[in-house]
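Many introductory courses stop at the sequence. We go one step further.
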Amino acid sequence: MAVQVLLVEDDAMISEALVLALSDEGFAVTPTASGEEALAALETVPAEVVLLDLMLPGIDGLTVCRELRKRGNLPVIVITARTDSQDVIAGLEAGADDYVTKPLVAGELAARIRALLRRTAPARPVHLRIADLLLHPDDESASRAGTRIHLTRTEFRLLSELAAAEGQVVTREQLLQRVWGHDYFGDTRLLDVHIRRLRRKVEPDPDAPRLVLTVRGIGYRVEPQP
């Protein structure tokens, strides 16, 4: 079965070109031209990944991305015409898993989609604990004192990698390879934003983290348990 891609792009020429290019790569693409149309389409389209332009008429891409995150863990790649940090970080902060910039290259985009789907596949059934935080691979969440904490699949994979290396430093390069894939060709802003998002969810005080610690200039680690 072809992977179902929901495309949200208001530029008709770009949309048509992406549909043709991704279809040639073996994907089944459903094009939509606005945030409202995309959210409505999700009621009937069994999308496995969303390609979301940030600059949309009506509901903007950031709002659509936040709404998708409220609904679940559907993988999202945002499309932006700008490469500056603010635009990229805004998309990632809204809940996107990855980003691509225009002009788009079909082969690179297809590779990004495949890499994203590989890393968001169901996690292996290993239960891990970080201090009072328990990780649940069955629904890719965490809990503290019985209260469930919703995580995206990427956030769960990132936390699992750190928990599995308990007490050891995991370098930024290792995390990018293990979570985003050996063929990932983005930049480390992606990791920075995901760590920040993760801390907001699992740390009692995200500004003074006690679970996910930064090892300056190297990477991250979690404290070993007594």
